[in-house]
Amino acid sequence: MATFSKKIQKLGVYTSGGDAPGMNAALRAVVRVAIAQKLEVFGVMQGYVGMMENHIAPLTQRDVANIIQRGGTVIKTGRSTEFTKPEGRAKAAANLKAHGIDALVCIGGDGSFRGAHALWEEHQIPVVGVPGTIDNDIFGSDKTIGFDTAVNTALEAIDRIRDTAASHDRLFIVEVMGRNSGFIASHVGLAGGAEEIFTPESTTTVEKAVEHIKEGISRGKSSSILVTAEGQKPGRAYDLAEAIRKKTGWDAKVCILGHQQRGGSPSAADRILASRMGAAAVDSLLKGRCDIMIGTEGERLVEVPLDLVTKSEKKAHLDLVSLANILAT
Ligand code: ADP
């Protein structure tokens, strides 16, 4: 963890990378806690894009009114390749300095934190990160903002699909988000009673899934649901369906949940997590601590160095996958 001694007067806040439900609740907490501590707050629009293009404006308590229940992010988010280069970051730092911004809170994922770490290293702008991503794949925090909502959104869809699957004696393959990590798939799969869960980390094979479904059929089971993380290639569920068809002749129905998992009103758990993390980020900066992310360890909030966060990997535990397997008999 890095420290700094300058007294903060003006705080910037931005949301960056993939949006997640609860980012607004975190923004609201940052703005209101900072103003309560007599700081001036500036919103940087569209993440690093707005930082480089100088889309930076003051935020008051009223600007964050009525947003705690809204998905997405009212100050927009963005992705920028220009910012990944030192010249882009120098442009951004110059804009921040022109506004007199002393410190930043970055609400985003690990890519955003790499950028935040670079701002500190190269321009000594103190930044604290707040993990906002539906994937829950950020090292150093048990939970990220948006994950609980995304799991519940996907679960609602699965429950509906189950009605059809049961009525028509069908096999459904439901694809959820998760490029490199199977947190959403394993949680949704267990909570939704899936027979098999395919995640980037798990060793589940088509052969094993077919075997499992056949066993179920022999016990009188007439419908099944498989859950898969999208992995490196969205549409993976179609490949699985084709592999199953080739092996068995079964006509599996595919449902890709896609971006609907990102939107929607944040759950109570996400609003509470976001409010706590946003407040803690301001508190850490006021105590002169930076280049860290606010994470959770159980119920406790912790500070984790950004360098460690971005260089380490967090993988979904496979125990949920094996439990789902045992329970789906
Ligand atoms: P997330 O924060 O959700 O992981 P991205 O990976 O898209 O989303 O990162 C958001 C933005 O952070 C990128 O568009 C880029 O501008 C910045 N960023 C990502 N990686 C780096 C890096 N290594 N150095 C500096 N900036 C980075």
Number of strands: 13
Indicate how many domains the architecture comprises. Answer: 2
Please tally the helical runs, counting DSSP H or I stretches of 4 or more residues.
11
- What overall form do the CA principal axes indicate? elongated
> Mind summarizing the main beta sheet?
7 strands, mixed
**CATH classification, class level of the largest domain:** Alpha Beta
CATH architecture of the largest domain: 3-Layer(aba) Sandwich
- Average predicted local confidence, pLDDT: 95
Sheet with the most strands: spatial strand order: 4-3-2-5-6-12-13
How much is the radius of gyration in Å?
22 Å
**Molecules bound to protein:** adenosine-5'-diphosphate
| Low-pLDDT sequence parts | none
Oligomerization category of the chains in this entry: single chain
* Estimated structural class: alpha/beta
Beta-strand portion reads 15-25%
Annotated CATH topology of the largest domain = Rossmann fold
- Terminal Cα span: 48 Å
